From TrEMBL:
Keywords: Oxidoreductase. Transmembrane segments: none annotated. It holds the Pfam family Pyr_redox_3. This is Putative flavoprotein. GO terms for molecular function: flavin adenine dinucleotide binding; monooxygenase activity. It comes from metagenome. The keyword Oxidoreductase applies.
Length: 434
C-alpha cells in the first residue's frame, strides 16, 4: 500500500491536464490508467477516425498545437502521440495497466480523511482523488436491443467498430445518426456495403459557414464558453447530441459536409428510430420525417443566429454569404425491417454513452450514474471529477475545454489543503479568443 497526496484516475487528456497543474504546483500525485496514455483513443475508436475539432482547438495547460496545419483535423493516432509528448514534457507520473477496482473511504480514524484506491497494481491511500475516466463510460444500447436475441445478426457498438473489413458479411443497420453513426455509415457505404440508418435525435451541423469552420463560430460567438448556470435547462443541455461532423485529413474533402441528405443520395436508406428487434424483425418508429425536420429547423435557427452575430459585430462586408444546407427530404419509411430478408448481418449501435463507475463506492452519483459535482467538486470532501459533458462549460467534454475544469479543480484542491491557489493561472495564449 502506498500513501500519497493525490490520485488521478485516467490518463486521457483531462487527467493529464490535472497532472500538469499539480506538477506545476509541486504537488505529489500519481496518474493511474487501466491501459496506456490516451487509452480510449487506442482501443475504443475506429481506424480512420480523425478529430472533428480543428487542431487549433487542442489546447491543454501549458501547451497548444503548434504543428503545420492548425485548421486540419488530427488522426486519433497522431493525437495519442501528442498526448504522450505532453506527458513526457513534464514527467507525468503515469502508472499504466493499473485498473481501478474500488475507490472507498480508507479505514481508520485519523484527523485527515483518506480514500482507498484499489487497483490491479496495488493500493493507494490518498487525501484527494480526481476522477478523469472520461465522459464515455459505457456505450448506450437502447432497451429494445439490449439482451434481445437477434439470432445470427451481430450486434456491435461503435466503440468496438474498427473498419468495414472487420464486420461480418452482409448489410449493416446503423442505429444512431450523430457524429459516430454518420461517419461509420459513410465509411461502410464507400466500402460497398448496403447501409440503413435508424435516425434518432441529432444535431445537424455544416462543416463551414460563410467560409469559416463551424468551431470558429462556436468559439467566437461564446457558445463553447457558455456555462451550465447560463442555460435554461441544464438537464437538456447535458443530454445534447454530438454534432453531425467529420474531420478529414484529405484537403479536398475536408470542407465537405457529412449529412443524411448526402448519404441518402449515395444509396444509404434512412428509417425511423429502432424500437426493438424481435427475432429477426426490427420494429421502427414512424418518426423519420419529424426527426429530420426538427434537426433542419434547429440548424436554420442556429445559422440565423450566426448571421445576426455577423451583423452585430460588423463583419458583414468581410464574410461572403454561403448557401444554406438543403433540408433533408425523406420518403415514407417502413416501420418493420426483416433483417434476414434484407440481408442485414450487423446491427451497429452508435447511440451514445452512459456514465459508468462501478468501482466508485462513495454516495456521490445520481440514479443514472452521473457524478454529482459543481465545478468538479463532488459532495465527498477531497474527491473531484474532470472531463464530464457540460461539466461547467459547454466545451467541458471537448479536448479543448478540459483545461478550464482542470484549473478550477486544482485551485480548489490547493486552497482546501492550505496551499493557496494555482501559481500560474491559464495564460492568455491558452484562453479562448475574446
Ligand atoms: C468517437 C469519439 C470522437 C471524439 N472526437 C472528439 C474530437 O474530435 N474533439 C474533441 O474535443 N472531443 C472528441 N471526443 C470527446 C472527448 O474529447 C473524448 O471522449 C476524450 O477521450 C475524453 O477525454 P478524457 O480524458 O476525459 O477521457 P478518456 O480519453 O476517456 O480517458 C479516460 C482514461 O481513463 C482510463 N480508465 C477508465 N476507467 C478506468 C479504471 N477503472 N481504472 C483505471 N483507468 C481507467 C481509460 O483507460 C482512459 O485512458 C470524442 C469522443 C468520441 C467517443
Amino acid at each position: 500500500m502506498t500513501t500519497i497526496d493525490t490520485v488521478v484516475i485516467g490518463a486521457g487528456h483531462a487527467g493529464l491536464a490535472v497532472s500538469k497543474l499539480l506538477t506545476d504546483a509541486g504537488r505529489e500525485h500519481v496518474v493511474l490508467d487501466r491501459g496506456r496514455i490516451g487509452d480510449r483513443w487506442r482501443t475504443e475508436r475506429w481506424d480512420s477516425l480523425h478529430l472533428l475539432t480543428p487542431s487549433w482547438m487542442t489546447r491543454l495547460p501549458g501547451w497548444g498545437y503548434s504543428g503545420p496545419d492548425p485548421d486540419g483535423y488530427l488522426g486519433a493516432g497522431s493525437f495519442v502521440g501528442l498526448l504522450e509528448a505532453y506527458a513526457a514534457s513534464f514527467g507525468a507520473p503515469v502508472v499504466g495497466r493499473a485498473t481501478v477496482h474500488e475507490v472507498a473511504p480508507a479505514p481508520g480514524r485519523g484527523a485527515a480523511r483518506r480514500y482507498r484506491v484499489a487497483t490491479s497494481r496495488g493500493t493507494w491511500h490518498a487525501r484527494h482523488v480526481v476522477i478523469a475516466t472520461g465522459p464515455h463510460g459505457t456505450p448506450y444500447v437502447p432497451a429494445g436491443l439490449a439482451g434481445t436475441d437477434i439470432g445470427r445478426v451481430d450486434l456491435v457498438t461503435s466503440n468496438r467498430y474498427r473498419n468495414p473489413g472487420r464486420l461480418g458479411a452482409g448489410g449493416v443497420l446503423v442505429v444512431g445518426a450523430s457524429a459516430s453513426g454518420l461517419q461509420i455509415a459513410d465509411e461502410l457505404n464507400r466500402a460497398g456495403r448496403d447501409v440503413t440508418i435508424a435516425v434518432g435525435r441529432h444535431t445537424r451541423m455544416p462543416r463551414r459557414h460563410r467560409g469559416l469552420d463551424i468551431f470558429w463560430w462556436l468559439e467566437n460567438t461564446g457558445r463553447l464558453a457558455r456555462t451550465i448556470d447560463e442555460v435554461p435547462d441544464p438537464v437538456a443541455a447535458r443530454a445534447e447530441t454530438s454534432l453531425q461532423l467529420v474531420g478529414r485529413d484529405d484537403h479536398e474533402r475536408a470542407t465537405q459536409d457529412l449529412d443524411l441528405g448526402g448519404l441518402q443520395a449515395r444509396g444509404v436508406r434512412l428509417v425511423g428510430r429502432v424500437e426493438a428487434v424481435e427475432g429477426r424483425t426490427a420494429r421502427l418508429r414512424d418518426d423519420l420525417a419529424a426527426t429530420v425536420g426538427a434537426a433542419d429547423a434547429a440548424l436554420d435557427g442556429f445559422l440565423d443566429s450566426l448571421d445576426r452575430f455577423v451583423e452585430r459585430v460588423g463583419l458583414g462586408n468581410q464574410l461572403w454569404d454561403s448557401p444554406r444546407p438543403r433540408p433533408v427530404s425523406v420518403a415514407s419509411a417502413p416501420t418493420r425491417l426483416d433483417l434476414g430478408a434484407e440481408g442485414i448481418g450487423t446491427v451497429l449501435v452508435a447511440a451514445g454513452y452512459r456514465p459508468h463507475h462501478p468501482w466508485l463506492r462513495l454516495p456521490i452519483t445520481d440514479s443514472d450514474g452521473t457524478i454529482r459535482q459543481r465545478r468538479g467538486v463532488t459532495p465527498a470532501e477531497g474527491v473531484y471529477v474532470v472531463g464530464q459533458r457540460f461539466q461547467h462549460r459547454r466545451d467541458s467534454g471537448y479536448i479543448d475545454g478540459a483545461r478550464h475544469d482542470a484549473a478550477s479543480v486544482v485551485s480548489h484542491l490547493l486552497a482546501s489543503s492550505g496551499s493557496g491557489s494555482l501559481a500560474a493561472p491559464l495564460s492568455d495564449a491558452e484562453e479562448p479568443a475574446a
